[in-house]
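Continuing the batch. This is chain 6 of the set; chains 1 through 5 are on the previous pages. Same settings as before, nothing changed between runs. Recording input and output for traceability.
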Amino acid sequence: MNNPEPKIKWVDIVSFNAEKDAAKVVARCILEAGEIRFEGEDFIIDNIKTGVPSVSDAKLITPQDGEKFLKALSDQYRSAYLFATDVQSGDAVKDFKIPPMKKVE
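Output for chain 6:
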């Protein structure tokens, strides 16, 4: 029996504040029914909605590229303080949860 394709795919863009040891989702890009939509802070959305370069060949990947755009976001935003999650999928968007951190002694 084949599993149906997830209805929704998304990437969260997360800001991490080391001083407060806290992370929050500042933007979310959602692919549903073949269309990308954006939620979150305007300064992030304005920066990405025109497209992001692919890591492999620096070609501009735009929201019209669908899942390829989500993957490019995930590849491009990888700093310690602003990062994009891997592409997630499901029947509904789930809240971002930061994994517990272990203190190094």
